[in-house]
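Subgroup meeting minutes
Present: P.N., E.W., G.H.
Scribe: E.W.

1. P.N. recapped why we're keeping a running log of single-chain structure predictions: easier to compare across weeks, and new members can see raw inputs and outputs side by side.
2. G.H. added today's entry (616 aa).
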Amino acid sequence: MASKSEVFIFKANTFPMKNFIPLALAVTVTLFSCGGKDTTQQDAQKFLDDYTEQFVKLYSNSSEAQWKANIEIKEGDSTNMLNAQKADEAMAAFTGSKENIEQAKKFLEKKDKLTEIQQKQIEVILYAAANNPQTIADVVKQRIKAETEQTQKLYGYQYTVGEKKVSTNDIDEILKKETDTTKRLIAWNASKEVGKILKPGLVNLRELRNKTVKELGYNDYFSYQVSDYNLKTDEMMQTMDRLMRELYPLYRELHTWMRYEMAKKYRSKEVPDYLPAHWLPNRWGQDWSNAVSVEGIDLDAVLNKKSKEWIVQEGEKLYTSIGFPSLPKVFWEKSSLYPYRSDSSVKKNNHASAWHMDLKNDVRSLMSVEPNSEWWETANHELGHIYYYIAYTNEEVPPLLRGGANRAYHEAIGTMMGLAAMQKPYLIDRGLIDANAKTDSIQSLMKEALNSVVFMFFSCGTMSNFEKALYVDNLSPDQFNAKWWELARKYQGIVPPSTRGEEYCDAATKTHINDDPAQYYDYALSYVILYQLHNHIAKNILKQDPRATNYFGQKSIGDFLKKIMYPGASKDWRQVLKESTGDELNAKAMLEYFQPLVEWLKTQNTGRKYSLPEAM
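Output recorded in log:
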């Protein structure tokens, strides 16, 4: 669920650098020539052209170093890590140079004389500089080093269940299928051990990230990341609260149903008021959908007979069928799509991601695809990022604006395509289920709600509030785990299997806390946007029920998506949403989608105890 497309525009910390003489030294800002003619636009374009040329070169070098550091992690060998660190330092020296900051500020003082697209690029340059200011170069280098080391620890970690070496995929399979709660507990505990070694690094990174962005006037790193939406921290958190309040009645019903169903499944004599974390089919309780099997749709049984390669190839077919081009040769040659053996001495980042390596035509994905329904959906999702890169790599979008309309759009497109690939009419069309298969529409909807709605309370609630506490409130390290579980209980209704002391750092076991920080609300916003887009596609293009669509072969869907994707970040995200759906950002489409579940759940929960309060 991640995109490396917006590394510069939105995640400038990922690819920074060193030992570079800034281009801005060679750029003289002459607002008026001797003839009195205003040359601001010409001077700004010269600055942008020179900046972009050098940036793309450094970005490409850095992408390669980062890629290798993510696919070749060897215990005791820090070569790739150090190369990535050097590349980051070099990029940081360029994007955060004092001269580039000064030039960007000078041009923005005359922004009324710039074209709109020039202004956007210069704002992007200044935003990136705030994460790498060379006025405190030592701090930036320390942060880059700390981030690289944290990533190495996270993805180089060898998980074990008992004495057996396992991968995260192995742990996930246990949590999805095992009915013995003792074995589940062992696996769940094993998944949290890595947090112990990550905690010191997280404490250090919090300090360095905050210190870095304060140099250019941001209060803290969380506020810096939120500002990319032109929002203040309070406004973003209020948005998260509003979305949860709108969905809360449904979530409360889902939580009650899940408690009783899981107690029955695990033969518990009592129904707990809060869900024990190891009872859930996901390490963080962010997705409960595996708890429901839809009769007539046993996708895993069908996909298990397919090859890993088939999963990705079939994903490509969805996109080409709606009018997108075939994936470029470089994608197949250079991506890392499949898992390493669990006992391999070489590890890789096990979190699925998509990469725009050079802001041009080199697009890759990092996955660990297995032939199952989860990776079927994930592969379709990640290809959404890849096709977004391909769409906005065009002459009308300068490299500095080759990103999503906002960070959430990239996830919205990917997740929507993953959802579309899971709907019954599509699965029938692709020959994965029998056309005559009798399925329970409520159960299908339930499975989706246990993914989407449940995820909203993890992303809006637990994750966003933890990172806000971490960066804005300067949460004390001796309260990290207590705060994490306080939030999980409050927002998700989940508790740990037993008391978790501060020697653990369960928040740090979530990859984003370490290497994609202070922006998990992106995912929450993406879910809202995806349902708005999907609702529009279903009702206005396909004329189908949003809960039962088939995108395959519908070129008009491709045309609709291309209009959103083609401009990249060159158009305001609110304008893009309004033009594409005719609506503002809201959860109406999501609420409408799941409305049939509400009455069904109330009937199911009749006579049951509701442990969550009636209102948030």
